[in-house]
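Here comes my example:
=====
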Amino acid sequence: MGYYYSSFVVTISVILLLQSTGTLANIPITDCDIGSTLWSDSCYLRAGNYTFSGLTIDAHILVIGYPVTINAAYLTIAGNGWLDADGQGYNTTTLLSNGTGPGAGVLVSYGGNYYTSGASHAGTGGNLNSLNITSGQVYGSVFNANTPGSSGASSVSQVGGSGGGVIIINVSIMFAVTGRISADAPTMSNCQGASAGSGGSITIKTSYWSIIPNSISANGGSCLGGTGVGGSGGRIYFSIIYNPPLEVFELGFAHGGDGNDNNPLSKGAAGTVMYDNTVGNLVLIVENNFLPPQPKPTPPENLYNSFIPREISSGMNEPGVTYINEDVTLFSLNMQGGAMLAVGGYLTVQRGIYSTDSPQFLISTIYVLSGKTLDIHECHGGRRQYIVPKINAHISVNGGYLVLPEETYLLGVTLIVQENSILASFYPFSYGDTSTVSLELHTGTLLRFSSLANSFGRGQGEYFFNSINMREDSVIEQTDYLQPIFGGYLGQTIVDYSFNTFLLYCINEVELYDLSVMFVSSLRMYTNDLNMEVTARIDADGRGYPARLAQGDGFGPGAGKFDHINFVCGGAGHGGNGGSPFNGPSDTVGLAYGSTFYPLEPGSSGCSTGAQRGGNGGGVIYININTTMSFMLSGTITARGTANDNGCSGAGAGSGGSIFFDFASSLGASWSPDYSWVEASGGSCSSGGSAGAGGRISYLENTGLTETPGGGSSPPPASKRAKKGKTKETYAEVDKYFKQNREEQKREESDEGHRRNKRSMDTNGIAQGFFAYGGVSSDGGSFNGGPGSIASLDLLYLLSGVLVDNNWVRSSWSNDFSDTVFPPRYPNAAYITEELSFLNYVGITGGARLIFDPLNSNITIQHFDGFGTGDLYINDHQTVYLLGFKGYPCPSYILQTSFYVPEYAALHFGESICNTFYYTGNMYVAGYLDMPQNEVFFQGSNVIFEPTSALNGFPGQYYFDGELQVTQGATLSFLSPCGFGSEIQVPWGLTVELSSVIYVLSASITGSSTLSVDRTSRIVASSVSDDTQAYGTGNYVPGGSGRNSTNTGGGCGGTGGSPRGVGAAGKTYDLGTWLCGSPGKGGQNARGGGFLYLDFSEIEVDGIISVDGEDGFNGGSGGSGGAISLFTSNLIGIGSFTANGGDGSANATIHAGGGGGGQIFTYFYIGTKRRVVSGDYYSNIFEAYGGQGDCGHLLCNGGAGPIYFEFASGETYLLLSNRFDKTGFSIHNAPVSLDFSPEDEGGVSFFWGGYESYVSQLEINNGVYLFFGPPSFSLILEEDILGDSTGSVVIQSGQSFQFNSSELYPTYEGEYVSLMPINVFVLQGGEAFLKGNVSLTNTIFYYHSEADVYFSDVKFFLYEGAELQLYSANKSAVRTFYFNGVQAFPFSLIFGNNTAIQSTNTITCPYSALIPLLRLC
């Protein structure tokens, strides 16, 4: 029953108690005259329904019980007035008990302790621990604020707090408040484990109002100090007929109560404050008065608001959360002060979600629970004005629906779309997908999209929007992208991962302003346009395959492997192979995989050592853009592999991921990167370990299509799409938006487009700002990761290009070619894994190494860009054609790439567009090579041709079509072995200059022009150390009693060094064979010199042509010199031709002989004999010295080799000289005996000149002992003999010596003589034929004959110790030597044994008479 009062005024000094009977009690009746304006004593207002025509309260009125309803035409709460229902809800009276009421606080015993939760009402109470104690249920309604607050739970020593009461005010005309109205739960101090009560309810309905801010409250109780927890806020409902609320109001509060300051979960949830103008314009305020610290980790970098909302369950008992469990349509929603709102029904917000929180602490959050809906859509204001809703609070969609307006402004907030959630757009009758929604993310906004959620009607992980505009410092992040696959023992071990895709479709555009970022793992973006400012980025770094926590291999197809024997790790592979601790094929290497042109695979992870976790792989970014304009990209797009926080420290780093730009349906668009940075590099190891390989980047375009598109881009073919079983049918709706009229567009391509010249791919399309480096390891070498691939493909003209680029340069280049086969496990390499046959463009730079998959048997590259350091490796049974070259302007082209061509592979160079072809790279060729028809410069190169290789010919044949220049420190090596030889043809000439070298084993180098070797350069021929491949190998001779053993030198033109009496020297052999010098013995088996055949019209040598033997080492003898054959019309220069033997090197127990000298043969096509050595015409130096021995005996030195010149006129010149002086010879002290096998004797020389050899001029110096090879050999000297009187010629049995000198020199006696400044030994069975006057000066003419000797026309002149030694081979018979005469001078000697001399003329001896056996003059 209600009570009516016509006019009522309560002053500050009076407390009025109106009982439900309507009578006044406890005060004098006279003092309580209703018409009076002054009351005395105290007044109370008990629960009931009261009606006034007008009521003014200017005093403190205590409301007793609930509810209290006041009805009035006019109601004023004056400045001193307070309508107080605090603590008048449910209460708790006993210790150690739950609270009372629907949302009563709960007491729980756990582990011997008691815990409580705060009382609930509009939301849940606080909770002090992490046990998720069930809170009391949420109750009441945002429209009917008529439920009291519940009481908190009691602890052992403290009773729980009471809830707030209920006040209902109905004013028909005017409601004014300058005082206060409250239904709070009381604050408890010094809490001892109890919990506070929840706020009550206040309903105010009026036509007009005048209310000061902050005057009405239904706050939850706080439990301060100790271990208390707060209660939830209550409910306030305002209803006004006129002056509808158009802005956010702050008239009333329903804050949650505070709790333990160190635990954010102890704080109660905010209550609800609803403003209703009765025509549907509802404004809901969910506000708290504290900024609780958040229990989440640091958010992604550049996230301005530094907040990630707390995760909650889909239930109704999360502490501190406000729940709306009814269907509500709001004009706007205001979230403030750290409030958390869970949508448990269908919540519609027409205008926007606002917050007045500081932008640095935007922490109010909305949760959309599973199966529930938050619907935000635009509405129309007066005169059909379009109003765009704005969102200024965090939203977390926990498996529910979020319905967005066509234009959605996110004002520095966090939007999280979790697993099984759905985004939708508003349609008049039903949900639609969000393809009409335009998202605008303002500063500090974070969007988190789960790959397990989607847009309405779409597949899992698929989100449709009209456009996305990301302002400064805004973030979009993909979540739930990893799906572990379990297996192993009991199925509890993660054996692999699958990836959930984030498909983002934007009909119009995606814009990223400065400092905005998308964090993704497996992004598929389809849009008409993408615009990024310079500091904006799309980031998939480290979001590929994760590393293993425990010791073992990484994850993914290119996982780095763990070596359980050596306990080392490999880096992950992708576009290339990962790094490895082993410089060669290794099972630790993470292998390359994935498509070059359609890359959609994440990067793999490196292996973990146990102590150190491996690095993660990079993710996948696929961007499909449909535009008719030039596409401009200025930001950063990365999918880099990562290392662990310790810089690997022995673990393996992850590989780069995939970045794929798909312009296939961009009609006429062209790529124009502008200040962009696109990177899929592998992870680097700064503290040691194996780095990851680069990933893959590809750019797909269609330049020929010129018509306006009918829609956006289409998804990639089904075979290229992500996993999880999606088929073409899944994309039927996508095609509706992105593939309209595609066939029609193709049919209507303009003729102009068809007439375009097929453009060539170059680095402008695929290199500028693109990087897929291999990671770098501080350990260097094989630890570095291989580069990834950067590809470009034009579908209209079928133009394709690939670039591999690295940011580190390998050292020790020769080690790269230490193996003959490069299997897939080789570290550092980039791999093209597809089977393909044609590429328009390939570029290799930055030290990158590229290998084509063995499946590709024939690969044609139209334009090869080798203007950068790098390697191209060709597999066995694979042929690569390089049709043309790009990257450097004519008239010359510089190719820096290094090539590896194995035995059964081929590399063809097409015609260079330039006249001159400069090659500065390195090359290893064991297969077939086809060089361009240009002038070729090897500039600073190191080029190796194996015996099985060929250049424009058969194996071992090398034909250069143009002039060949080896320059600037370059090295060319031809390794065809001795006995076979390399045939090198350079018809337009060969130049070796600027410290360059041509190195061969056995080779002929021929040309019709000039061979030029400058003073800094060399052509070197070196043999092998394998003694099975050489004839004159040195020998090991054991030592006898009291003497050392000996390793004798190798032989060639001269025998190797060997001490007298030891024998077994390295032998000599014929100059005419293609045999090289022989190796020494012992030590490291010093190599002999090689064989070199040079045939040019002109040979100009200022440097060195060398076939020298190698020096011995540690008891090893020297190798012999090799052989040089020269054929030319003109020989000029001041350089040297050397075929010297190597020196021996003894140790404590083994003597070592020097190697024998080699052989040099020179033929002049024109001209006559000239004095080559004297330098009258030629100033070149020719040497074929023996090597110096190391045994203390002259015969340990190697014998000199022959140097032979022949002219077209038939004249010849034979030279033998050594660098060791053997002077003072006589038959008694000569270093060789006369009854020996010369090929076993150390340090002697041989000339193998056939059976009859005409020599125009013979010169022998420095103690050379010259023997002749064939058993029946005739040496015919036609002109004269030169020498220093120390050299010797030995004529053996069956051989003959004929001296027909035409060079006559005058004597003091007035006669003319032929000089013989050499020693001549005619051994038994040999013959000598002389004529004319012969002069001997300090030399020996020795003749050991079996028959009489007729020198009837010969007169000997003996000077200065010359000796004429005549011996009979038959001791029983005297042999007679017939002379024309003998003129002996002082100190000369005529010596005979069983010999007679008969002279036609006088035998003159000035000092004594003729003695039959001995004549001394």
The CA atoms of residues 510 and 1328 lie 105 Å apart.
